[in-house]
C-alpha cells in the first residue's frame, strides 16, 4: 500500500486549483522550443492546462533522433479531441484539468516554479511524487492512456499523424480504416452518456 | 385473436438469426426487437477505439450493468456492480448481437456431450445431466449451418472426430499464417493430430457476401466484407430480403405479458425515446444471450407464472454455464529464428487455424481415470496495438514513462511474434452459478439488472490445467520463449450459456425438448440458454444448429 499524500484530498485540490487559475494570467513567457511549439498550430497550447500537459507529455514521451516524441504524435490535439468527445464524462474531463492545478501547486511548493519551467530531473521527481497519491496515480495513468492512444489509434482521431506511431513500431494496421463520420461516437448510440452528476 | 405479427423475436444474435430467417422465408411475418442500433458493413472499420477501448457496441455500464457475485474470504458471496469493477458482461448489443464480433471458431459438440452423465457418471457438487436429444437429432442442423451460414474447414482424421453426414466442409479453409506449419510440425513430432480450425468465415464469396480479405483484425471487430458468418450478415439479411421481416433497433424489451392460460400475448419494450410500447404476436421467441434471457423471464411474472415466466419450479437462471479453461502465450523471438522464417512470421492477415482435440476425452490416472477433457486452439496474440502497448504501462506497481517506456514498446512490438493458445473445457453446472434479479441495482429504464453468481467447480481447473500443460508443451517444442499460461475459475464473459435448461421434467428444466417454455406453450428460447451442459468448444455453432432445429417446430405451429 502506498503512503498517502497531502495532495490526495478533493477539497484542498479544488481550492488549490482555483487559486492557480487566478494566477494563470501572470504566467511567464514560455521558454520551450519555439519551433516545436509553432508546429502545434492552433491548439492554444500557450495557455494552461495545455501548456503544462504538453510539458508532462514531453517528459513522458520524449522525442529522440530515431523515434517520435509526444509532439510528433500530436498528443495534445489528441487529448483535446478526446476531452471534447461526447462520451467523455464531465467528471473525467474536469479531473484532467484539475490535475494540472495539483501538479503546478506541488512544483511551486518544491521548486518555486510551475512544472513547465522545470528541468528533466525536477520534473521526474515531481511526477513520481504525484504518483504516490491515489488521485495523482490515477491522473498520470489517464494521461499515459491518452498518450498511448495518440501514438497508436487511427489518425482520424487527431493523433498518430500519417501513421507515424505505427511506422515507428512496424505495426500493420487493419483495413478498412474509419472515416471521420464513422468515428466511434458517431455510430448511433440511442442515448448520450449519462453522468452521475 | 388477431395479432400484429406471426412471430416476435426478442434479440437478434446467433439464437435469433436462424428462427428469423426460416420463419420469414416460409412466409410468416416476423418482428425482431433489438436493444442496440442497426449497424452494417458500412459502419464496421478496424478501429480499436470503437471495438475495444470505448466499447461502442455495448452499453455504458452506468446505463446498463450487471452485479457479479464472487466468493469472499469468509466463504460468503459478495456482489459488485460492474459499473464499479469495469468488468463488462456485455458482448455486443447491436443487430446481429455478439456474433458480429466473434472469432468464428466453429466446433461441433460430440455425441458424448449429449449424454455426459451416462458416459462419465455423476460428479459431486455438479449438476451434470444428459440432454433430452442426441447428436443425431442435431447433426442435420450442424450440416445446414455449414452451408447457410458458411463454415470453412477441412475434415482431418483424429481420434475424437465426430460423425458427419457429409464428407467435407462446403468451403475450403481460410488462408493460413506460416506459423501453422510450425504448429503442425511440433504436434506431429509428439504424435498429435493438429486439425484446421473450422471457421464461420467465408473463404470465397457466397450468397451476396464477400470472401475474407484477411485484414488480420477479426475477433472483437465487426466484419467489413460480410465474410464473417454473424447472424446479421448470414441470416437476418435473408429474412429482411424476403419482405416478411421487420427489425426494430433501439427496442429494449423489459417484460413479456402472459394471459390467464399462461400464453405470452405481448412483448413490452422501451423505444429510442424511452416510450413504453408493445407488440403482439402468435409466437414469441426469446434470444437475448443467456444472462439477459433468464433476466427477462424472471422479470415477466403473469397469472400462471407468479415467479416469472417459466419459473414455476424455480429453475430459471440456474445452472448458468461459461467456458472453463484458460490461455497461454509463447514468444517466437525473431533473433533466434532463421531470418526468412522470422520475416514470414511478422505478417498479419491469414489465420493460424490450428486446433487439437486429442484430449477431448482423457484417460489419465492423474485425473482419476477417464474424464471429459477439451479443445486447444492456437492463434496469434490479438493485433490490437493500444492493448499491447498498455501491457507495458506498469512495472512493479509503478507507471512506466520516458525512454524506458519507449524502449519497452519498441521491444514488444518488434522483437517477436506471440503465439497464443486457448483451452476450452466444460464449465460444470453447479448451484453457485446462476442468474437472479438484483435487489438494488436498476438499469436506466428502472428495471432490476441481472445479478450473476459465478461460482465454478474445482474439477474444471484440474482439467483446464491438464490441457494447458499439454498446449504449453507444443509451444515449447516450437522453440517458443517466455511461455506462460493461466487457468482460473474466472468466467470468460463472452462464452456464456445455460440458465434455462431444456429437459423432459419441468421440475428440473425450464424448456421442453423443443425449447418451448414449460407452461407457456407459445414461447420458445433459442439462444444458448437451453444447454444443460456446455461441451468443450465455443457455443455458437451449437446455438445456430439448435435454433434451426427449433425453427422447424415453430414452422409447424404458426
Features:
heterodimer; A: 197 residues; mainly alpha; 8 helices; 50% helix; 0% strand; globular; disordered N terminus; disordered C terminus; B: 558 residues; alpha+beta; 7-stranded mixed β-sheet; 6-stranded antiparallel β-sheet; 13 helices; 23% strand
Describe the 3D structure.
The complex is a heterodimer of chains A (197) and B (558). Chain A has 197 residues and is an all-alpha fold. Chain A has eight helices and no strands. In chain A, helix 5 packs across helix 6, helix 5 crosses helix 7 and helix 6 packs across helix 7. Helix content of chain B is 24%, strand content 23%. Chain B has 13 helices and 23 strands. In chain B, strands 1, 2, 6, 7, 8, 9 and 23 form a seven-stranded mixed beta sheet that branches. In chain B, strands 5-12-15-18-11-21 form a six-stranded antiparallel beta sheet, with helices on both faces. In chain B, strands 4-3-20-19 form a four-stranded mixed beta sheet. At the A-B interface, helix 6 and helix 7 of A face helix 2, helix 10, strand 17 and helix 11 of B.
**What's the end-to-end separation of chain A, in Å?**
30 Å
Overall pLDDT score of chain B: 97
**Strand element count of chain B:** 23
Q: What shape does the CA trace of chain B take?
A: globular
Q: Largest chain-chain contact?
A: A-B, 49 and 47 residues
Our measurement of the CA-to-CA distance between the termini of chain B, rounded to an integer number of angstroms, reads: 14 Å
Question: What's the helix-strand series of chain A?
Answer: HHHHHHHH
- The secondary structure category of chain A is mainly alpha
**Quaternary assembly:** heterodimer
* Structural class assignment of chain B: alpha+beta
Query: Which regions of chain B have little confidence, pLDDT < 50, spanning 5+ residues?
Result: none
- Note the total helix count of chain A: 8
The tally of beta strands of chain A, per DSSP, is 0
Shape of chain A: globular
The amount of helix of chain A comes to 40-55%
Major pleated sheet of chain B = 7 strands, mixed
- State the helix count of chain B: 13
Share of β-strand residues of chain A: under 5%
